[in-house]
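ok here's FHA domain-containing protein:
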Amino acid sequence: MNNQEPDILPEARLVGAKGLLSELEFKILADTIYIGRVSGNDVVLNDTSVSSQHAKITWENDNYIISDLESKNGISVNGKTVTKKVLRNSDKIKIGGTTFRFVYKPLVKESKGGDRGAEAGTNPVRIAIYAIGILIVLVILVRLLPTKTQQEMLPDSPLEVQVYMTLSQLKMKKPEGKISTTGNAEQDASNHYTKGIIYHDSGQFKKAIYEFNAAKEMMPAMEKYAKGIKTALEELNKEIDYHVRLGKVHSNHLRYLDAIKEWEYALFLIEDEQLPQYKKIQNDITIVRKRLEAYGKSY
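and the structure:
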């Protein structure tokens, strides 16, 4: 009496819970099965209170539905008499003196899954939850990413470095320390140049300039001494520019004490209080100190 089996049918079965068929299982393998007293039904109940063809279970519109076939004593689902009802997993079906438990595993179809996905996508609560989750992940990732160092925040290309000192503006001083005088100008110039290289490589660019200049005065024709002065002066401007810009970064982030320290070191390198660039930095320091005083801090 079974109809033709559908291409795809969800897994379902009737499990005897009470009565004649207790603990027996009947798998639903067709889109319609019949339950009754006489042979020829898919599930046979040898019970006089059961009609010859008592009920049927059909697969319709993605649901299993039980229907009473005008039986004498009817059917009940979960204690309530029904003539037709959509079955859910674990429903208890009573026919005559037998009770079945309906076990059902819904079939997940791609079309339905897509529909549920679309519904989830238009649910404002779910959208908000997803957005918060994504935001939390992004915050964590940003915190895990390596941050730029102060040096990386500032340009290091010579083309981007502001010139704070020219050779004519530099207060040239005699080299520090003693260098033995050999009486040979070429040898004495070489000694100053060597000492200048040491100062340059250790980042003491002003002292390097003084040494290179002393060598140049002794041997004006030696181009490498003039080149040494030029290179050390460029490095000195880079150093001043670095501290000025780093001070601005601190100031922009309200780290005023750090800004003052950077700018005062730049003033130490420039040294000449009459230079416009010195006065400009000094003015910036004055402005920042006034801000600190407004916040009740002093420096």
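+1. Residues 223-252 form the longest helix (30 residues).
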